[in-house]
Design brief:
Blueprint (H helix, E strand, L loop, with lengths): L8 E2 L3 H15 L7 E16 L12 E16 L2 E14 L7 E13 L6 E12 L15 E16 L3 E14 L6 E12 L6 E13 L4 E13 L5 E13 L12 E11 L2 E10 L8 E11 L2 E10 L2 E11 L3 E13 L5 E12 L10 E2 L10 E11 L5 E14 L3 E14 L5 E16 L2 E14 L10 E17 L2 E14 L6 E13 L1
Antiparallel strand pairs: 1-5, 2-3, 2-28, 3-4, 4-5, 5-6, 6-7, 7-8, 8-9, 9-10, 10-11, 11-12, 12-13, 13-14, 14-15, 15-16, 16-17, 17-18, 18-22, 19-20, 19-21, 22-23, 23-24, 24-25, 25-26, 26-27, 27-28
């Protein structure tokens, strides 16, 4: 298990350890009664990181060497009834520029599954201790070296049941989950239930589809409940056109719901064109119960699965927030794999609500613009202040989120695996709109990597990535409240020194541009890591 700086969780306390460790005996209570196999592993790692701008400032860069000594432990148990895995690390980090920052950090990942009986329901439990950015508007790439992170602990337990045969396919789950954070932002707990059912290939007279999701969550000050359900039932005819009825209902409620949007149900007749066993198109006309919420509308769905290697599902619907789309596409050949997905979800209790705070005064040109390329901190004025004035600038900080938001996510992953070289291209976008304030945030991540196997024991990886974050993009008619871009280029050389000893060396350059004067900077890092497996 490689030990690297990124992703280390900070300062886990003993109470949190006790909470997630409770899940382990729950999952493994019956291990003694069933024969199984244990796999155990440990490792020690040392990572030395040099940064020429560890404090990520526009000027007066502070260099530092961050030393990380890590110990890892992995365990896996497998039997006919039980699957259990644990992975955890303990890391001590020391900072050459400021020893007061020295501290220890932890990560943990626990997964457990217990089959209550053959082909019956399963008990599942998970626990995660991770490190996340304390403030995405300050640094969305925060890690152990930069230090601006908070610990997040996520635990869940529940039951799932699934069955599939020629008559029907059925999948359901009910999960209780709890999220805790070091700064209390985004904390919540509650239940989530899902159900999916459809007819099997043996259906000759009736076909159906049922999809439902229910979520009931709360934090210390508010509650939020939302659900949606879509059902179709139709008749199978001897022709390729099959009639059906469609029903859709969605609702959100609780003290976190502002009531700005009106939810309603709809139903209507439809027709399915069954072009083949692996391709059909559904079109339905839906009557809306509350005409003040929406007009009647047409919904459509395309499902094409010509082979086990290719699948396409495209859908259009009208929800309480407007037109809604979904897409799932996957294609796999001998060397090329493509996956594209687009989904729109209603969520609550994330860490993406911000408030404006003062950053201090800056020297800016008279009449503006008041941005990073034109302003200077008051402590570092321009050589000639003629034509400049002191202007108070503001920044963003996260606050507790008690609001529902609509999140539209697009993801595209493409991998080309040649004999000795692998190329990977990834795009991920997210548009988040608050249902109470109407604030819209946009995020995009793009990365391209190439990994070359140089020998049986060495490889070289080149990576370039681009990240853009726009906060409150409609803050003014022409400008968002804040816009950040991150451009990263890195190269990593991996080398196996012995059967259980490995090393890697990484050079990385980061350039960040921001509309906030204090958040534009660049940084060069050099990593060297040695890991010993036992």
């Amino acid at each position: 298990m490689a030990i690297m700086a990124t992703g280390m969780a900070k300062n886990i306390n003993k109470n949190s350890l006790n909470r997630f460790s409770v899940l382990i005996p729950l999952t493994l209570a019956s291990n003694i009664a069933f024969a199984g196999e244990w796999t155990l592993g440990t490792d020690l790692g040392l990572t030395e990181t040099y940064s020429n701008n560890v404090e990520l400032t526009p000027v007066n860069h502070q260099s530092s060497v961050v030393s990380q000594l890590s110990a890892g432990f992995d365990a896996k148990f497998t039997s006919r009834e039980v699957d259990f895995s644990f992975s955890g690390t303990e890391t001590y980090a020391a900072y050459s520029h400021n020893s007061d920052l020295n501290d220890d950090y932890q990560t943990a990942k626990v997964d457990g599954l217990f089959s209550l009986w053959r082909d019956g329901p399963k008990f599942i439990a998970t626990s995660r201790i991770t490190n996340i950015s304390q403030n995405n508007s300050n640094n969305s790439l925060a890690d152990l070296v930069s230090g601006d992170t908070v610990q997040q602990r996520a635990h869940s337990a529940g039951f799932q049941y699934q069955t599939a045969n020629s008559s029907h396919n059925f999948n359901s789950s009910i999960i209780y989950s709890l999220t805790e954070t070091e700064d209390n932002i985004g904390e919540n707990n509650g239940y989530t239930a899902n159900i999916n059912s459809e007819n099997g290939n043996a259906a000759r007279h009736v076909f159906w589809q049922l999809t439902g999701q229910y979520s009931d969550r709360e934090n210390t000050t508010s509650t939020g409940t939302n659900y949606n359900i879509e059902a179709q039932i139709g008749a199978i005819t001897s022709f390729k056109l099959n009639p059906f009825l469609r029903f859709y209902d969605e609702d959100i409620s609780g003290t976190s719901f502002s009531g700005n949007q009106t939810t309603t149900s709809s139903w209507g007749p439809g027709i399915r064109w069954q072009a083949s066993n692996h391709f059909y198109i559904d079109v339905s006309y839906n009557y809306v119960e509350d005409k003040t919420a929406s007009d009647d509308y047409v919904a459509a769905n395309i499902n094409w699965q010509p082979s086990q290697r290719t699948s396409l599902v495209v859908g259009y619907n009208k929800r309480f927030f407007g037109d809604s789309y979904n897409l799932d596409f996957s294609h796999r050949s001998k060397r090329l794999t493509n996956k594209i997905s687009y989904h729109e979800t209603v969520e609550i209790y994330d860490r993406d609500s911000f408030q404006e705070v003062g950053l201090g005064e800056f020297w800016c040109p008279v009449g503006g613009p008041f941005d990073a390329n034109s302003c200077f901190p008051s402590s570092q004025p321009p050589s000639d202040t003629t034509g400049f004035i002191l202007v108070p600038l503001t920044g963003l900080e996260p606050v507790e989120n008690n609001e529902f938001s609509v999140n539209k996510r697009l993801a595209w992953n493409s991998t080309l695996a040649l004999s000795r070289t692998t190329f990977a291209f990834d795009i991920a976008t997210r548009e988040r709109e608050s249902l109470s304030t109407g604030i819209i945030d946009d995020n995009i991540d793009v990365s391209l990597s190439a990994t070359r196997t140089l020998s049986p024991r060495s490889s070289l990886r080149l990576l370039t990535s681009y990240r853009e974050a726009i906060f409150d993009k409609n803050f003014t008619p022409t400008n968002p409240r804040q816009k950040d871009t991150y451009k990263t280029v890195s190269t990593t050389y991996n080398r196996g020194l012995a059967s259980s000893l490995s090393a890697n060396f990484t050079l990385q350059y980061l350039e960040r541009d921001s509309s906030q004067a204090t958040l534009t900077y660049d940084e060069v890092r050099a990593y060297i890591n040695i890991t010993k497996d036992f």
